[in-house]
Amino acid sequence: MNRLNSHKTDELFEFIQKFSAGVFCGQELGRNWSAISADQQLQQLAKESMGPQVRAHTAHNFHSGVDSVTQWGGTCVMSMESMSRYAAGIGRDPSGLGRWCWARFKGRNGIHLRVASIYCPCSPSVAAGGTISAGELTVYSQHKKFLNDQNDDRDPRTACLEDFEVDLASWIDAGDQVIVAGDFNFHVMDDPIASLFDRYDMHNMIFALHDHRGFPASSGKGDTRTVDAIFGTPNLVPLKAGYIDITDQPGDHYALWVDITFQSALGHPPTQFPHPRMRRLQLSNARCVAKYQQRLKQLLRKHNLFHRQYTLEQEVLASGGAPLTEAQAKEAEAIDNLRTRCMLQAEKQCRKFRTGEVDYSPTTAMPARAMRYWYSLIRRTQGLQISLSKIKKLKQLAGIHEPTALLTEQDMWARYKEARTLYSEAKKAHKEFRLKYLDTFTPKERDRLKRVEEQRRQGRICKMVNGKLRGEGISTVAVGSDEAPIVYVTQPQVEAAIIAENQSKYSQCLGTPPMQPPFTNLFGYTGDTPAADQVLDGTFQAPPDMDPALQTFLQHCKAHPAPEGLTPCPNHVTTEDNRLAWKKAKEHTQAGLSGLTFAMFKANALDPELCAFDASIRDIPYFTGYAYKRWKKGLNAMLPKKDGVFWVHKLRTILLLEADANMNYKKLHRDVMWFARQADSFDPSNYGGMYGVQAVEAPLDSRLTMDLLRQKRKAACVASTDAKGCFDRIVHSIAFICLRSFGMHKAPIASMLKAIREMTHHIRTAFGDSEAWYGFDPNNPDAVPQQGLLQGNGAAVTGWNAIISNIMEMMLAAGFDLTVWSAITKQVIKFICINFIDDGTLFLGGPTNTTPGSEVYARMQDLLDMWEAALRATGGAVAFDKSYWYLIDFHWNGSSWQYISKDKTPGELTLPQNTPDRTPATVPRLNPNEARELLGVMLQPDGNETSQYKHLLAKAKKWKDAVRSHHIKQHDAWYTLNASIMKTLEYPLMATTLTRKQCSDVMSPVLMGALPKCGIQARMPRALVTGSLAVQGLNLPHLHTTQTIRHLQALLRHGCRDTQIGLKLRAVMEGHILELGSGTPFWDLPYDQWKFLATPTWISLTWRDIDPLPLRLQGPLPVPPSPRQHDLYLMDHAMSMGFSERQMYRLNNCRLHLHVFHLSDVVTADGLRIHPSSWNANPTGRHSTYDWPRTFRPTQDDRELWQALMKSFLPPHATHRRLTQPLGDWFQQQDPLWEWWLSQQNNYLYQTPPNAPWTVWLPHGNSHAPSAQLPAPLPPDLVRADVSVNTDGSRAKLLSTAGSTATPEEAIATPNTMDSLIYNLPPESRWALELYSIPDGGFTIAKAIKDGVALAVSDASLKLEYGTSAFVIEGHTPEGRILGANVVPGPIPEGDSYRCELAGLIGILTILNLLCQHHQLKEGSVRIACDNQSTLYIFDPSYIPNPNKDSYDLVCSLHHLIQQCPITLLPEHVKGHQVDKKARHFLTRAEQLNDEMDNLAKAFWQYKADTGGIPNPPMISVANEGWSIWNQGRKLQGAQSSQLYPLIEDAHTLSFWTNSHSIQPQRRLDPACISNIDFQACKDAMTALKIPHRHWITKQASENCSVGSTFKYWGKQETDTCPRCDLPGEDSRHVLLCRAENSDTTWDSNFTELITYLDETHTDPDLIVLVQTRLQQFRRQESLILHPPLSQAISRTLLLQQDLIGWQNLLYGFPSKLWQVIQSRHLRRLGSPNLSTRSWMKGFLTRLHKLAWGQWDHRNKVLYDPDMKWQQKMRRELDDVLAEEMMRGPMNLPPGDRSHFQLPLADLMAKSWDYKKAWLANVSSARNRQARRQSLAADAIADSRARSALLHFNATGQLPGRAYKPSPDAPPP
């Protein structure tokens, strides 16, 4: 099929469908697909016309440089639905010329079919009808130019066939069956075509059935040759073959066709696949939902189901949860069956389908309805029975009013064809008609619909680019071995293979101990036995023959005690439970066999009556343990774990349960998780399925653990083990016991497990849902039941977590753990495993940091054995093939600490293999520098990130290749870039510590592939690509900045929480404090100055990234305080002495070895001298509570260096060790760490060794001797002493004693009143009660709280970024009420009422906690009402503050106060401002108080404004906020990405703007003006613009746009002339200033619109004057020396600032901050202070942008309008160049290239623009090729002469033609 023209596209698709083609091959499509938009690509057009399963693959010449959509040549292969499902790959001509393309199809038993479409160019003589010239746009000329450029002198036709044969040979060598369909432009019966295919035994498939002598010429245009053919390999035998006349198809050649069987092509017969059932109920369609609900209630009432269900529920409740009786079960099933039928019937009737590939609009729908009407009428006329009412309805819908009684059948057919024509025309523009139709909706609804449709469309594009478009399901599976696979493709075979595999999968646990006696004798298969109760209460006595590991495990399944006041897990489903559960559920989640969808239940939950009915049906199983029969049918959906891998044992089985059944199981999950959180009973190192936990936190935990080991130099063993099929192997009795141990009732667990045990499983594949099943057999009820909790079950992860937590407890009890202590606070971190579902990493360490690795390794095999036995004791197993381990240990190599490699510490571990005999095998061991992937993050113990860098770089390159091969629109490419690959690359960043260069390298291939697709130059400066909108960057997140933000978020989220990550973060930070030895928190130290002392860790590398930024972290770092007056930190002092880095490192090693921090640690007790031991770098024997890392004994050189440091504390040239500045008094008299004490009264020495009782030493001459007497009560006059004990410990000599202790200030006693409690609050809490009134000490309110009648209400006021809040607490009456008010701490963005409401709630909770403390309240309740619903979520017990959300600091503070409060808090939402809507006496008390607090907050705000003006809100730390981030003295609310990103990244962008560049010699901004620019206003305006306009601003401002100077700089054109005014030097500034014809009209129109906006928005007159004068001066390029008349001094300041910033920059969106200041003052003068100046500014800047954009738009219209003079000039210039080339003539060109000059110049000038450009390109290429030939020839001659001369010289000793004259000093020859 040749020549695909746009008007023939529909004909082509109709032709393909008419003949039911499976594969279509096309040649010479004539399309330049690179210049065609995504929605007009062949793939998209084919999908719209023939269905979504069609796959179209095209090839064209990528090298032509043609901008036109027309380009001769090209090929395509399209596979229709019958074949596309077997697609296994596509490809094209590797040269990029588009000469051929192919598609590969995967069949059975290793059979592959490859179909190729090839187009070989015509010879010049054929193309010109006998003339020499080939034409400049012909395929021949295109290929000839390319070959010339490649220095290839082959004829294009020969090159095509030779290159194609290379590919063909490789296909056949690979064992593929091959079909080649082509337009060869050679006679196919002659050489070279015949010989080419003969060499590969390929036959002409048409001539195999027909005599070629009767076959017509291919084109019928005078050429008598047969140039088209279809060739096939020998095994492809056609059943039929032939050709289709030119008149019957859209091409200009005869269409060839062959019909072969599926069996011969793919090795199996064709398979019919069902289409998925479409859902009628759509929740976005309110009318549809209402119709469904109404119809369902009608049906339920018809069958009396409401009454029957509630009657049954009352009976069940009365029975106390006993199992249902037979009659009750029968009634429950009857109700459920009827309810199911009613829901399906209601869904069927809620709407009719109107589906298709055409977007709906009345313009397309009306002709389609007319077609259906006329066709139905014709069929009725022909005698078919078609309902008259249906015809009338169709006529009404189609809007047809024409009488039809007198119409003949021929007339009706004419009307039908007319409607079809209208429909065909409308279908071509159906997307545009859809948009016009959406414009008829209300703006809000229209925007929503457009947004949803656009998101769906772009989501599909993302999936397409990433190769993740959802398929139809599994249609092929493979079994057997890799060497001899057996492939199944038929429905019975595929289903049988999957059923066999799943039966095996769910029976893996049958041979494990809990499925064998004696366990089953005691617990059965359910676990609901008295023995289980004994296990839970801790009284179970296991029989001796039970598996030992199982016995131990059961000992740790004792029920976890509930905290005081915590109620057990609920065992009822309430209506509210049901409503909330379905509210959160996703509408399109797949469900089970019955057909009841999530959408139906969600719609039910929206109706109170239906919601209660559904809750009642769910409640019966949850309360009694019953399982409906419908719940016992499961659907196994099979998914490949990896694309293209269809081994049956590598498929993932997802169980699709009934929607309401799984909702019950999800409730079980939530209830258990709620109990576990409150009781703190789940192991904190378990991350899978935990609320509020991100998957990447597990790798972060592992990373921090490795950091701690490295920091402490602690030996450990680490083993990664994967629990094989963990969900599928869970034994039900074990799950039952473990879930109960975490507070769950029996009934919900029993209901779930019963449904699974008695479940029949069907299979969902591409063939549909199977009738075949496996599972529970009612005819054999005594068979061993199915086990496992199954993937897809909402409670499966909870069951597994319950089991694994008990296993971890068991391991810890056995003494297997890794225990580390935080360095300073000595907080213990003890754990055994970091676990995420089935991925577990085991850790084992020694008791101390100095324990050698050999001792740890000696216990590691026992740990692995116990872990494997514990898993097996629960039905599980370790996946041996996924296991590996490390032995981590360290040694000092003389200059640094290094990891010990595995070859220096031999050892091996074994685990049983996953074979029937469980033969042990050696587990692979890795070196600490080898990485493995954990949940998408590459981790290795030494912390090196090279593997992670390469891992991300590979993903980036793969995506670049994928996006380059797709044709997508610019804005779709930008969306795909941000929504797909960037998210993929960003995922691991919380756990990584990549450098900025590494991150830039990872992004580089992504940007090189994506930016051109987005219409952005590929080498756009990266500082602009990653800059935020505030500085007019493209706002693509830089990975390194995102990494820094993720780190800060992790620090804020966990830094002060007792999570495993939080504990380890603090431990690593304390380790850095200890190893750095500075008195300054290390976050505040310069990283480059101190980095060599810090172990490389996640924390230290985060410090590296934060240090250059303006950000600072503040938080609770426990820096050891100085213990006495005049003390010094040793390392701070050493740093000030100017030691080198290497010397500092050695000094620090000495300090760490001595376990000292301060100068007082190395001097005598009296503070006068250096201690003798310390002088020699020996420990003094004093104790330290700190956990010091492993150290080494200093060398002699180190000791001498240490002494040099000690000498710096002595007088110059001192021969003694007395300090220049003696230390002062000790701050504390008691010191449990000081070992020796002297009683000045009796001269006794008292010794307190670590962990030992006091010993008394009595005076003995000049020393002291130990006494046997027991110490009496210690005397009060003890002082510290330094003592030297002799070697045998018999005598102790007193060296020095300490002086007195500094006297602390006495605390002033205060009375215990509410006022005193508030007065003594620290400042971080006191702000919340700045104003308060407590009339009777809170007694009245305390009583109201006890009685449960207290009510607290708050509200806030916010104006001008200054907020106040007020609150009240009262009882039944206002008597004794408590009032309060406060100023909201900053920062407060404009309109942030949420933060202000939080401040009011904090005031309430602060008062409540003080009341409970003062009045000793332990119980009671208070209602807390607020009109901001978002604040009330914080009261949820499961709430976890998120640092990426607003006001994180206040949220943390409020959350902590809520957790502290001992009484019950009852939050409720109250609507605000109700007094404006109804009379006060109709308001509830909460509504009245809300209005009152609103007024009080406003009054307090006004009071603050009146008394001190409106200052900035206070920037303070608030209580319990943990870590906070500060930016140059201004605190951030948290770690929101939107706030942090500009603060981190924008400095790079501003640096670009303030410097000159080669493409932009004049810098854009003066550095002096940066502080005056309103970047927030710029961000607001940029956000309001569409993405292409944002990109234009960045490109325009940086000269990276398509203007003349830029194109000339890039080498894309030779001149930089303006297309409008014809002047040289067109840059972005010239675009704005060009005064060409009509440009002023465009400017004036947009300028008038701008001034109108300023007038209508009450703009300050001075601002209007500025705009009117300065912008016009800028436009006219007038001097700015003359200033316009301005009435205010501040306006004149604005003028100067904006002059410095630049008025061109103002047009692009960079204003001075004073614009808003002046406008705000003006509005206040007008009495309109509430009008938003921020909104005014955004409108102002967007209209300025329109002013600039208007000039750009006008310029492009001139440029691309063929009638405009610029185009005419370009054509003249091209004609001039052509004339010059024609004057040069063919010159020395070879004969093959001289044909270009045979066309007369006049004829050439008459050709099209594209033709002439192609002629010039072809001639230039030919000349360049000839020049290279001549150069090579000259080089060859020179080389030949040189070789001859060398040979002559070697033979004669003389150069040719010269006599040899030896040097006087040379030896004779």
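The above is record 1. Record 2 follows with the same two-line structure.
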Amino acid sequence: MSLRDRILSDTNIYAAIHALPNTLREKSLICGDQQQYLKDLREVYRYGASHDKFISHCKDKLEKALDDELSEPFKVSFFLKFKDFEDGCAQYRPIHNCDIATHVCLLAMLQTLCFEDDYEKRTRELSGLSKLIPNNYWGNRISTNGNEIYKPWAPAYTSYIRETINKAKKYKNNKQYNNEVNLDFKDFFPSINLGWLSNTIKNKLYIKYTTEEDRETLNRILELLLYFEIDSVETYNDRELSIYYGQPTTFDDSTTYYTKGLPQGLPHTYFFANIAMAEIEPYIKKEFDGDADFYVDDAVIFCNCDKNDFKSKVDRLNFLFDISDINSCNYSEDVYINDFQNTHFAIGIQLHDKQKSSIISLTEDKSFASDNLAMLYRNASGISIEIRTSLSDLNDQITLNETQTICNAIKKELGRLDKIKDEADQDTLESIRLYDKRIKSYYKYYTFRELLILKKKNNTSESVLQKFYNLCDELVNKTDIDSNLDYMVFQNLYRLLLYEFYDKRNDIISHVQSADKSLSQQDQETSIHSSHLYYTIDAINTTTISDIVSKYDYSEFEMTISQSKTNDIKSLKRSDNERDAINIIIDSEHCVATSDIRYFISCIDTNFRRQSISIKIKNYLAIPLDCGYNYYRKCNRPLLWYQLRLLHYLNLPNFNYIEFKAFSTRILEQSKGGGECYPVDYSIFHVLPFFATYVKDQIKNDLLIQAHHYVYDIWKNGSKFLHFYTLHNAEHSITLIRKCIELTTACGYFKLTSTEFYILFLSCYLHDISMVTYPDINSFDENKVNSQTHTINWQNEILWHYDLVDKFFENDIRNNHPKNSATIIRKGRLGFELDEFVRNAVAIISEAHGAKAKAIYTHNDEPEIINSQKMKIMLRIVDTLDMCEERVSPYYLSLTEQQIPDTSKFHWISHLAIKSCNFDTKYDLVDEIEDDIYGTFLDFKNITEHIHLIIKLNTRQEASTSLPVEPCSNIIVTPKTTGVNIQICDGKCNMNRCPFVCKWMNKKSEFLLPELYEFQKLLDNHFEYYSTNFSIEYKYSDAEQMGRHIPFISRYLDGNSSTEMPTNLEDELDD
């Protein structure tokens, strides 16, 4: 197939249509009837007349452009996005856009440069040109998934930041490189010489395209992808054109106006920017040889160059650019475009001087180094997840408190920089400028997360709206932009409010327009027209476009599937064999025929294939398509375990059909009999979202489902010798997993990887697994119990010894279950398979929940693949916190109250006395630091984390009782009218009398206070963590609900409870 035929093929054009919604960056600039086109294209799974007609339209447009060399370039418009003020003048970045059909044509041509598509083998691979982009280029990486051209930018940018911060720390320690160089290009996109870029690409593809026809087509598509005519140029005034071209320009209606450099905003230009940077990098290496990372036009290089030579090196690079083809080559082979460039704008890339490019010493500039940003980076991803997975308003408040404290720390750090700027030398100023820029980007990140939380919370949205109005007033009144940090979130702020206050939409848009207009008028006689101001157009269109691209019409896709000739869902439903029916659905190649133009996309778009199978199975099983992780069937038949495993696998990203087919074959084979055919325990739906969010991987998610199934099944009949012991079944495991998520939010120390969350969740399921097993009766040792012979009748003799045997095994199981559980896990004696590494890790963590606290909290600097200490600590704490009333049954207690042993009775009543147990964490930031020059507000220890555990009670016992023989250690107790507060600290309790509730609850959870004390000591010595203190509040109920049980609790605490011998037996023995 020739290059031209490939570009014009229906399959290629449809692939461009399919990828456009996820590739188009500036959707809000699409106006008028083009919005309807975008709406039609978003329904990519429906192929109807509108698509057929639109594909023909795009094909005609593309064919004309390719074949008619005299045809005009594609037309684009531009919008001016305010950046900042420079010398009192507003600076703008032009953002380009075009109609939807042109976007499709551009992507259709781009795909032939980016990919090697094999329509017969149904595969997509990176092209040779794409492979030339190095792995250290983090921005706009090409994706072979059919629903996008580029991989998502947010994870890539996060990886870029993480990589550069980690390298800064590494090289600071190992001294391999002494300096960090940051290079910034002046207006990179509009400065690129397109003639040089075009020649570069043609030279690299010369061997690939050997026929004259293909080479001519390549020349033509490069012209069409690089050069554009300004659409409706007569609507732009002279000032707007002067801003665009970077020099005074007067409109001439006899002139055709062309774009300058790469028109930023058009999706295809980001690929060309990476190609350009890959060619520029060798020049940079000549002057700054070291370890480099790039994000489009931002470069971070760790090297050993002399700081004093930095400016001369930058100057030398700019000189090299000017004398090379990069800047000196003709701008275009088209005479008219080249003449226009020569008369209307200068071209050529240049690095900023020391005002924006900079060099920082990794060893000297301690207070401005990248590793100071570790606190900001460390907390960033965790806060985003916490917002998405919040379990309560209290969790939201904790996240809000932390976010606001970090924002405050950033403000104070920026204030510190302002103090020292006036007296700083030039080298220090360079360091400060870069540091300042990075900190502000984090401020934008955290402030927007703060706004998201405020939006979720009741009665706070109005305050956010007022904040926006105040910001607009300041912008209208031309308040200094640089000092107003809130301007950094201006766009995020108004977008958020447009969704929240739809009834005030016009007022919000009006404020945006006034601010945008006012900024453009500062010190200028001629303003920029509102229709050409980026923020104004963005505000007008943002809600409409968002509704178009975010609403997914499942009904259309369901209709396509149900009408598929290869799989008649209705006929499958008539079969009683659900396993065979599901197998047929999975085995079916696609929901579209091979003759359908969507067929190629259905093979290379993993989401298309995943959704196809998932919706078919849901349709067949009568499960709502938008069920999330709650796979309830809308019929009278239960969901079975093997069905849940398949559905949940299909609900996770990063799908691969071959891997899924192997997985499903194994699952369906297992479902021919046994536990896989049993009804699901629906309580698992409470934790499936956590598995998906925190663990992610499909196989690991599946193993967690199997762990739940296993624990649920083996605890069905309870434990033989633990009649009155609270159950440690799947309900207990679910509570622990939920508490893990709460603790992750409440205590910032617990930043775990996905693998660590996986092992932790498995430990929540398996740490008590030996408690349900039947012991070896030959292990009974009469020397460990009171086996004195009594002369009594034989019935009572049997009862006596039965009681002794029962107590022996109960104590043996209780005391040894951490070690025994670890043994079972290590030996793999489970109902599912775990690899040896995971088994050992889970066994270590499970066994640790019975160890002494001091053995767990010794600081360990040894490098580990996983941080087992964090997981041990978390499991121990959450296991202690499963203390609330839902843990036991009051009905069962009332039935067995006379028979239950006193210790078990005490714990059952204590559970009933606790209504809830939640964290409430607050954060404090230091007011000042000792040294403005060498200190930083971003040091972890400048923030104190106050972790407050609130335990609400179902009792109001305000009485006090006698002190224990030894005063309690490491606490300060403060009785209040609302309850009892306990502060964890060094020393001993100095109370004259012991509050009854304090004595009761500390006896009930005797390990909690020592655990928190040891944890607090560990954190105090951890330099990469906040200063931390713990406190507990036992909060009284408004009304006494435990009255009838209080006398027993009082006797038990005083050691005067009855013996635990069977009723009436003791009297008989005494006789």
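The radius of gyration is 34 Å.
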